[in-house]
C-alpha cells in the first residue's frame, strides 16, 4: 500500500497553522509565503478566507457551487454530487457540484464567498482546483521566449533575480513538452521518447521578464546510480537555494497509477517548504491500459488522496496535455498570479 511507504515525518497537525509558519525561512527572503504545504496550505484553504455567513445551512466546509461541468474536475465517486441544473434554459451543462472548500486552492489576496456561487464558479480555472485571484494579470500570455543557458550547478544559473518557475518530474513525464506547449514552440526545449533527455538546468526567458526552467528528470533507472544521485542532489540543492524560485511545478503522469517516487517527491517538497503546484500530464491518453486501466481523472484523484493524507490541505493542481494543449492557458494564468504576488511581496 503506497500510503504506508510514505515518510511519516511530513504529517503535521493542522493546529500548527499560524502566521509565523507562513513566513519563509530567512534564507529564502523572497520566496512566496503561500507554500502549498502542510500548515501553510491549510491556512490558504482554511475557512478563514471564506465568507460562509450566507451559507449557514451547509455542512461545515462544503459549498454548493453552480459550475459549468467543463470548468471543474469532479473526482469520480465520493466527492461529486452532480445533478442536472434546475435551470432548463442552461445551455452549458451547468450542474450543482458539492465541492468541499478545502479542496480549492485560494491564492493570497483572493477570498471565496460561499454565498456567491456564480462568482466562485467563474474563478476556478478549468481542469484544476485553482481559484483565480486579483494578481492574475494581462501578462499571462507568452509573447516571446528564448533559451538563455544550461547550467550544471545552481551557482551557474542566471543572476538577474527575475522570477522563475521550475518544471520537475520523473524522466519522460513531459517536462520539456509542457514547456514547449506553454511557449507555443515545437522544439524550444528538446524532447525525446527515451528518458533522460534533459541533463542540465535549462533556463528559458519569457517575455523578457521571467523564467521557465526545464530540469533533468528523476527516477531514470538506466542511468548509473552515481549519476542519478548527483542529479537528484543537484536539483534539490537548486530548489533549496534559489531565492527567485517562485514555485516548483511537479509533473505527474496522469495516464498511469500513482508512483511512490512521485509521492515521495511531493512529500519532500512539502517538508522543505518549497512552493509546489501539481501538474498532471498526458491527460489526453484516455484509453484503458492493461496495467491498471484507469482514466486520468481517476489517477489524479488517487494521487491527491494519497497526498492529502500527508498535507494539511490540497496543493494547487491542474490537468494538462501537451498534445491537445489542455491546461496551457490556465497554467499561464496561475503562473501570472503567483509571479505578480511574488513581485509585490
Ligand atoms: N500523449 C502525450 N505524450 C506526451 C505528452 N507530453 C509528453 N509526451 C511524450 O512523452 C515523451 C517524453 O516527453 P519529454 O517532454 O521529453 O519528457 P521529459 O520529462 O522532458 O523527459 P526527460 O528530459 O528525459 O526527463 C515524448 O515522447 C513526448 O512526446 C502529453 O501530454 N501527451
Ligand atoms: Mg526533458
UniProtKB/TrEMBL annotation:
Belongs to the TRAFAC class TrmE-Era-EngA-EngB-Septin-like GTPase superfamily. EngB GTPase family. The keyword Nucleotide-binding applies. This is GTP-binding protein. Residues 161-341 form the EngB-type G domain. Gene3D superfamilies: P-loop containing nucleotide triphosphate hydrolases (3.40.50.300). It comes from the Eukaryota. GO terms for molecular function: GTP binding; metal ion binding.
Amino acid at each position: 500500500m503506497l500510503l504506508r511507504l510514505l515518510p511519516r515525518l511530513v504529517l503535521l497537525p493542522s493546529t500548527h497553522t499560524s502566521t509565523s509558519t507562513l513566513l519563509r525561512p530567512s534564507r529564502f527572503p523572497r520566496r512566496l509565503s503561500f507554500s502549498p504545504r502542510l500548515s501553510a496550505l491549510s491556512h490558504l484553504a482554511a475557512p478563514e478566507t471564506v465568507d460562509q455567513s450566507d451559507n449557514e445551512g451547509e455542512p461545515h466546509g462544503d459549498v454548493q457551487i453552480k459550475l459549468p461541468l467543463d470548468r471543474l474536475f469532479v473526482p469520480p465517486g465520493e466527492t461529486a454530487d452532480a445533478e442536472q441544473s434546475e435551470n432548463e434554459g442552461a445551455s452549458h451543462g451547468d450542474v450543482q457540484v458539492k465541492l468541499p472548500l478545502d479542496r480549492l486552492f485560494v491564492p493570497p489576496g483572493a477570498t471565496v464567498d460561499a454565498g456567491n456561487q456564480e462568482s466562485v464558479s467563474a474563478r476556478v480555472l478549468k481542469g484544476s482546483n485553482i481559484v483565480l485571484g486579483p494578481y492574475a494579470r494581462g501578462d499571462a500570455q507568452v509573447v516571446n521566449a528564448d533559451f538563455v543557458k544550461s547550467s550544471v550547478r545552481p551557482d551557474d544559473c542566471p543572476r538577474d533575480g527575475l522570477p522563475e518557475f521550475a518544471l520537475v518530474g520523473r524522466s519522460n513525464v513531459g517536462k520539456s513538452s509542457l514547456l514547449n506547449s506553454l511557449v507555443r514552440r515545437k522544439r524550444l526545449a528538446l524532447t525525446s521518447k527515451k528518458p533522460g533527455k534533459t541533463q542540465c538546468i535549462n533556463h528559458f526567458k519569457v517575455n523578457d521578464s521571467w523564467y521557465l526552467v526545464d530540469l533533468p528528470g528523476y527516477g531514470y533507472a538506466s542511468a548509473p546510480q552515481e549519476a542519478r544521485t548527483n542529479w537528484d542532489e543537484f536539483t534539490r540543492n537548486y530548489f533549496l537555494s534559489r531565492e527567485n524560485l517562485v514555485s516548483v511545478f511537479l509533473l505527474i503522469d496522469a495516464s498511469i497509477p500513482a508512483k511512490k517516487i512521485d509521492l515521495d517527491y511531493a512529500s519532500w517538497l512539502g517538508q522543505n517548504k518549497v512552493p509546489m503546484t501539481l501538474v498532471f500530464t498526458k491527460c489526453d491518453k484516455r484509453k484503458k491500459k492493461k496495467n491498471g486501466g484507469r482514466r486520468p481523472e481517476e489517477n489524479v484523484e488517487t494521487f491527491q488522496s494519497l497526498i492529502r493524507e500527508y498535507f494539511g490541505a490540497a496543493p494547487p493542481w491542474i490537468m494538462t496535455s501537451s498534445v491537445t494543449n489542455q491546461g496551457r492557458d490556465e497554467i499561464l494564468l496561475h503562473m501570472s498570479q503567483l509571479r505578480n504576488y511574488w513581485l509585490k511581496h
